[in-house]
Amino acid sequence: MGNQKLYKGSLQTIILKLLAQNDKMYGYEITQKVKELTKGELKITEGALYPALHKLEAEGLLDVEVAKVGNRLRKYYKLTENGTKETANRLSEMQEFLNTMQQLVNPKFSLE
Amino acid sequence: MELTKEQIQKIDLFLEGIGIEYIDIRFEMVDHIATEIENNIEDINAFFKYNGFQTPFIKYMLSRKKEYFESYKKQKRKAFWFNIKRTLVAVFKESIKPINFIAILLFLFAINLLENFNLKYASEIVFVSFFLSFFYFTIRFNQFKKKFGAIKIIHAYASIFMFNYIVSFHFPGITPIFSEGSYSPFLLYKCFTALIINFLVFKCFLNEKTNIQKRLKNLA
Fold first, then answer.
1. A47 touches chain B (CB under 8 A)
2. For A89, which of A32, B131, B177, B182 is 20 to 30 Å away at the CA?
3. Where in this chain does the record put each Transcription regulator PadR N-terminal domain (chain A) (predicted)?
4. Chain B residues within an 8 Å CB radius of A71
């Protein structure tokens, strides 16, 4: 497993990107999807995930929907209209960041 | 295999037992743990089967107790500001609803007329209205809090009520509004603003109250 601290600043972008690809998701589903996509490299803890989801909700980027699933309640998150716009901005910022990092750590190659 | 109502209740009781008091945070944690158990444990009945201190469920939960509590503390801290922000947005939206906006303007107009006629009477009317409204809202609010205090957002309303009260009474105080020679348009409109804020917060609280009752019915 790589250095988790390096991923910390990207957690919100990761969540937004996943929600852009899936209509709505719940907390556990997000952690499992990230684990699956990164082949276990990145494991999101509850302590990091839920505050990040709530922050995005407070910023108006996510909408919530509470549904009864089996014998319990489940909170689903989905992107708002602003959330969809913000996802595009953050992904482009992330790409710029990756390009800059690439130039710094390995100037010979480029991601573009 | 899906967890039964009793098994869900065991998770909920465990979390409540370790100090995860607010149900609006807890229900999401319950779902997370329940899904994790459903996906990773093969024999769920054996996992929950009571076997003194050896119950695998208890061992599983105890091994993650610290992690759950840390996650809760973090969520609780952030939920406070999130709820305050959400409540203030709701108050603002309430204030720009045409019916409220017109009512506030009419009241302001009436107070302005009365102020020009007699500042003392205008000040006393606004102050008494503010004081009575504060007293009434606090009683209604506390009755609800006694029953539904385990819902975190309730505390955001309590904080805004108290903040409005402290600022209105002390910075600078509005009580001199009653002393001879201390009447001033500034104190009058400060008290008027506090009264309007009280009214709007209370209206939002009534809306939230219905939502909470509905949500709690689902959680029960």
1. yes
2. A32
3. 15-88
4. 2-5, 8
For residues B176 and B123, give the distance between their C-alpha atoms in angstroms, rounded to a whole number. Answer: 10
Distance (Å, rounded) from C-alpha A94 to C-alpha B177? 57
Task: Please say whether the beta carbons of A31 and A43 come within 8 A.
Answer: yes
Is the pLDDT confidence value at B171 over 90?
no
ipTM over 0.90: no
Q: What is the structure's pLDDT at B180? A: 60
In angstroms, the CA B212 to CA B152 distance is 10
pTM reported for the whole predicted model: 0.73
Does A74 sit within 8 Å of B31, measured CB to CB?
yes
Cite the beta strand spans of A19-81 per DSSP E: 25-26, 62-69, 72-79
CA distance B174 to B194: 10
**Number of A–B residue contacts, CB under 8 Å:** 65
Query: Maximum CA pair distance of chain B?
Result: 81
Give yes or no for a contact between B25 and B152, defined as CB atoms under 8 angstroms apart: yes
A110 has a pLDDT exceeding 60:
no
* Residue A33, number of CB atoms within 10 A of its CB: 16
Cβ separation of B31 and A47 shorter than 8 Å? Answer: no
CATH domain A4-105 topology: Arc Repressor Mutant, subunit A (1.10.10)
Q: Is A108 on the interface with B (CB under 8 A)?
A: no
Chain B residues within 8 A of A45 when measuring between CB atoms: 67, 71
Distance CA B200, CA B209 (A): 14
DSSP reduced 3-state for B27: helix
Residue A108 confidence class, pLDDT cut points 50, 70, 90: low
Q: Find out whether B86 and B204 touch, Cβ atoms under 8 Å.
A: no
The answer to whether A26 and B29 have CB atoms below 8 angstroms apart is no
Question: H/E element holding A29?
Answer: helix A27-37
- Give how far A108 is from chain B: nearest CA, Å: 42
| Cα-only R_g, chain A | 15
